[in-house]
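ok so i was messing around last nite and threw this chain in just to see what happens. nothing serious, just curious
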Amino acid sequence: MPAPRRARPAPVAEVLRSLHEAYPAARCSLDHVTPLQLLVSTILSAQCTDARVNMVTPELFRRFPDARSLASAPPGALEEVIRSTGFFNAKAKSIRGAAKAIVERHGGEVPRTMEELNVLPGVGRKTANVVLGNAFGAPDGVVVDTHVGRLARRLGWSRHADPEKVERDLNRAIPPGEWVWVSHALIQHGRAACTARAPRCSSCPLERLCPKVGVPARRVA
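result:
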């Protein structure tokens, strides 16, 4: 029996045009003023909604306004403020560690390269790309969270589950000038229409373009 034919990937240029029409103002949903605030907020957003993070960070940044104060926060103080974001002990450890490294290695300023960001405690490529793209306008690649990874596979743009491999595929397929915006657009689309369990394909602006890789017919609404 011949092997099944692989679905043809959705055309990148047409998908981007449709996403621009559907989500022209897609932007970072984490409230922040400084690169440090964005870095900390992104660490807090792991397995937590951005809305919940935005509820917590005003008090957090009021009490700990810079890297030095975060690094020297008394035991339990960070944990108390960020408790509602979940996994607060691990997140507090990452925030303290990243802040300490920023103070000791970078004079209290968030570094501007992937290499320097990626070695900070609690900071992987996704978090680093969020900061580089949204705080400094210089992303090293597309931000790949669970929504972006899922949509990349459904659109046939990547066959991988590993976020870094998905990122490499997207970086090759999508023009660098679109990297920051497309991450937000795909995240917004993944929340609004192309959900994990019950994607609303019939009302999706990408429906005619999407090969729907891995979408069971019974789940398509």
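not much to say yet. The chain is about 50% helix and 0% strand.
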